[in-house]
Design goal:
The chain has 174 residues and is an alpha/beta fold. It has one domain: 3-Layer(aba) Sandwich (Rossmann fold). It contains seven helices and eight strands. The strands form two sheets. Strands 1, 2, 3, 4, 5 and 8 form a six-stranded parallel beta sheet that branches. It has a two-stranded antiparallel ribbon with strand order 6-7. The C terminus is likely disordered.
């Protein structure tokens, strides 16, 4: 689903994307105890997050929360690394009962970092997908709305030339 969000933003802005899945760096990332130990793929992911113009953060919901590896990644970021950055929040889960994870956990986490989360977040369940493809019109509309909100935020930023300088990156915990 995160890929659909990134594509929606890029259609509006012409921006570039970088996809980083923290699961790919799992064992290496999970063993890092401080930012000073960052090397290889985990360091590349952290630097990409810090340098991004906009973030799309997605996570599956496990046991009522975002993944521990995603939380560990955020523990390695400098507290001011995301200050002022626009962020689109997404999550997926097995039932609608976990939909508030975005509002009660992800949004406060990003607020701690001083990021600007766009008002429309996207939550989807297994029934919103068929053969791993998004089929829900309602979720697709939320994606389009969040992309418009993020684009308006970028256009309102001082010295912003979205078409040439905005870089969009996604972090998807798997």
């Amino acid at each position: 689903m995160v890929a659909e969000v990134v594509s929606a933003v890029c259609r509006l802005t012409g921006g570039e994307t970088l996809v980083a899945d923290v699961a790919d760096a799992g064992p290496e990332l999970g063993s890092i105890r401080s930012p000073r130990e960052l090397r290889g793929l985990p360091e590349k992911i952290v630097r990409s997050i810090e340098n991004a113009g906009l973030l799309v953060i997605g996570t599956p919901v496990y046991k009522g929360s975002y993944t521990g590896l995603l939380k560990h990644l955020f523990d390695l970021l400098h507290p001011e690394a995301l200050a002022g950055k626009p962020v689109i929040l997404t999550a997926t889960g097995g039932s609608s009962l976990h939909g508030l994870v975005i509002e009660h956990q992800l949004r406060p986490l990003l607020s701690f970092f001083g990021a600007h989360t766009v008002p429309t977040a996207i939550y989807a369940t297994d029934t919103d997908f068929k053969d791993y493809r998004l089929v829900s019109a309602a979720v697709s509309e939320r994606i389009a709305r969040s992309a418009r909100e993020a684009t308006r935020f970028l256009l309102a930023a001082p010295n912003s030339d979205v078409a040439e300088t905005a870089i969009y990156r996604q972090i998807a915990a798997g």
